[in-house]
Amino acid sequence: MAIYYKIVFGLLVTEIAVFLALMIPLPNHLKQKSLLFIRDNVVSKAQYTLKIIAVFVFILLIDSVNHLLTAVEKTDTPESQANVRLANAINVKKFYAQRNTYLTGATLFLSFILNYTFELIIELLSTKENLKNLEKKPSNESNYWKT
Predict the structure, then answer these.
(1) Torsion-angle region of residue 26: left (phi > 0), alpha (psi -120 to 50) or beta?
(2) DSSP state letter for 77
(3) For 29, phi and psi rounded to 5 degrees?
(4) CA dist list (Å): 81 to 7, 75, 86, 146
(5) Residue 124: in which H helix or E strand, if any?
């Protein structure tokens, strides 16, 4: 595996770990404080870098799909069907191209899902806090629409 695919694999494992950390059930106030801290200090500073990484992963995805398509084309030639060693070599290249395609595609997909999930959880927690604040208001203000 080339070094850049090892980096992509490390990025995928990191994204999985972050996604699982977001799914840990915590009390609302603790989860809100930690997520707001992460959003303000980590995500805001790293967002530009994450976009650049996503572009590079997308380029690797296009490259791996291109390698996959050329490997499929080579499989259909009569020379590869007659020569067993050539057919095995082509199948190995096809396997690596498929692996790289799945790796880069899953990494890119999970990065979009992770970003959306993070923003969705932040919005949910802020909405819950707004609801708590509305419930704590005195009854004469909350009955405005009932008159």
Answers:
(1) beta
(2) S
(3) -65, -40
(4) 35, 7, 8, 80
(5) helix 84-136
SS3 2: coil
List, for residues 91-118, the tens digit of each pLDDT value.
Answer: 888 899 999 999 999 999 999 998 888 8
Q: What is the mean pLDDT of the chain?
A: 84
Tally of helices (H runs) and strands (E runs) in the chain? 6, 0
**How far is residue 21's CA from residue 53's CA, in Å, rounded to a whole number?**
21
Rounded to whole angstroms, how far apart are CA atoms 13 and 18?
9
Count, residues in the chain? 147
Q: What is the CB neighbour count within 10 angstroms for residue 11?
A: 21
DSSP 8-state symbol, 145? T
